[in-house]
Amino acid sequence: MSAITGSQVKGAALDEDDDDDGPWWKDREVLIPIFSGIAFLAGLICEWSGAEIPTLMLFWAGLLLGAYTFVPGALVKLFTKGKLGIGLLMTISATGAVILGYVEEAAALAFLYSIAEALEDKAMDRARSGLRALLKLVPETATIRREGTTVEVQAKELHVGDLLVVRPGERVATDGVISEGRSSLDTSAITGESIPVDAAPGDQVSAGSINTSGSLVIEATAAGTDNSLTTIVELVERAQAEKGHRARLADRIARPLVPGVMILAVLVAVIGSLFGDPELWITRALVVLVAASPCALAIAVPLTVVAGVGSASKFGVVIKSGAAFERLGGIRHLAVDKTGTLTRNQPTVTQVATIGDANHEQVLAWAAAVEQHSTHPLAAAITAAVPTAAAAEEVTETAGRGITGRIGDATITVGSPRWLDAGALTDEVETLENEGMTVVIVHRDGAIAGAIGVRDELRPEVPEVIRTLEKGGIGVTMLTGDNTRTARALAAKAGIQDVRAEQRPEEKAIVVAELSRTRTTR
Fold first, then answer.
1. pLDDT band at 126 (very low <50, low <70, confident <90, very high)
2. Exposed, middle or buried: residue 193 (CB in 10 Å: 0-12, 13-18, 19+)?
3. Residues of the chain with CATH 3.40.1110.10
4. Among the options 121, 186, 226, 337, which is catalytic?
5. How far apart are CA 311 and CA 420, in angstroms?
6. Could you tell me which residues come within 8 angstroms of residue 438 by beta carbon, excluding any fewer than 6 positions away?
7. Model pLDDT for residues 72-88, shown as the tens digit of each residue
């Protein structure tokens, strides 16, 4: 696959509604092998009934249909690029079988190999659709401020310097810097950060981020067709192109095997003809060609890949190609994301600090009563901790800062330590943050009452998995867009030494490329 520019990918994504290949029964690459199998089975039925001519015709039909899926490609690679692949071996094997008069066997080989390749191609197409889904994180249209009024334009028409108006719940159409407003941004799809980050004037915003609360005005720093998301796609495509020259397992075997088998067959025919019946030894040479072709390997490899990719998808793992799947056995270093991979991707209340007469249950209940009126993920974590808390009244929310409400005669304010004074709990708040928690301060009637630590906790099996990998000689690196304190705290619990925090997606790609060059593989 050739490398493509971010603008080319983005333009295609915005111009086309969907690249979905449709259902399998409308896919010619699947239908042809199926028809090959139908013809082959019909030939077997006719053979059992004694109808010789229909039998031969059906076997030939099955052979030609199956061969159509791989023979032309194998010959093109041979004559234009000089490549010897597993498809060429199958072509030689089928041709030899036909010359020997075994059309039925040739038809069976062609059908089995064609259906195995078709299944693998469909599985890989489904995996690669994740790349197209990434581009859909960018909205098709954007609202911009122009000459004092707001107008809606196509996202691909955005230019550097345009002022984007992003309302609560909307996605940011391109990279930019906030010029007006305060809010919280959900960047989980971009950086993996499970908890929205506060955003204020001067902060940078990435394309695809979701504005969760207050309205924002963002000055575009990248065109709609050339932003951070299109850069990610370009890097992925480039990585695929760089790895494209690495042959598949079956092709690596085929490269020395094809000339070796052909040379052996020629030697059998020539030397045998010198000392015996030429017709007999030429026939035996053809038998060598057919017998030496690794038909079982050619069919088993695609089916194994399909089974492996399908099983992995059940666990939320997307494998982008068969070549990548086959290389898993040689991996000596593993780079993993934090959010959703090592963690549950579900922020939960981890710790509560209090002061004065308030206890943990009271502080949580006060916060939950107010946070019921908020859609912020931190609010969801707090309300989940006290689902029975009564809702507060007269609730008002300040975008990017916090929320206030009344419970009886008391005024409860819940918000960020950057907005609310932690008072006597300052040291404890710092400790909680150093342990990788996002802290929420709770005030009662203007005085500090407590602090709540929220964190996306590790999956319970992670430490054991990391230990198992290290025992097997496989190193592990954590890559995350989360802040350094959170990343290091969770890495310590998981047993991971190499931590790369506050990484944007393009920076993660660079780190992976660096690890590929510097870490040994087998």
1. low
2. buried
3. 348-455
4. 337
5. 48
6. 195, 347, 378, 453, 454, 455, 486
7. 988 888 888 887 777 88
**By the 8 A CB rule, do 165 and 181 touch?**
no
Which uninterrupted H or E stretch holds 63? helix 52-68
- pLDDT level of residue 127 (50, 70, 90 thresholds): low
CA distance 353 to 368: 15
Q: How many alpha carbons fall within 13 Å on the CB side of residue 168? A: 12
d(CA 282, CA 457): 69
| Secondary element (H or E) of residue 326 | helix 322-326
Cross-sheet strand order for the sheet of 402-407: 348-354, 447-455, 438-444, 410-415, 402-407, 393-398
- Token output for 240: 């695929």
Distance from C-alpha of 442 to C-alpha of 411, rounded to nearest angstrom: 10
| Alpha-carbon span 459 to 344, nearest angstrom | 6
Q: Which residues make up the CATH 3.40.50.1000 domain(s) of the chain?
A: 331-343+458-518
When mean pLDDT is compared over 10-24, 37-51, 244-258, the highest value belongs to: 37-51
For domain 331-343+458-518, give the fold.
Rossmann fold (3.40.50)
Q: Where in the chain is the domain with CATH 2.70.150.10?
A: 141-226
Q: Mean pLDDT for the chain? A: 80
**What Å distances lie between residue 159 and 15, 111, 147, 324, 456, CA to CA?**
17, 53, 15, 37, 37
Q: Using alpha carbons, select from 47, 65, 64, 48 the residue that is nearest to residue 56.
A: 47
Cα pseudo-dihedral 308, 310, 311, 315, rounded to 10: 130
Residue range 141-226, CATH number? 2.70.150.10
The neighbouring-strand residues paired with 353 are 451
CA dihedral sign of residues 141, 144, 147, 150:
positive
**CATH 3.40.1110.10, domain 348-455, yes or no:** yes
Query: Which single residue is written with the structure tokens 């906790």?
Result: 457
Q: For residue range 200-237, what is the model confidence (pLDDT) as tens digits?
A: 899 888 888 888 877 899 999 988 888 877 776 666 65
337 assigned to active site? yes
The one-letter amino acid code at 93 reads S
Mean pLDDT on 341-361? 86
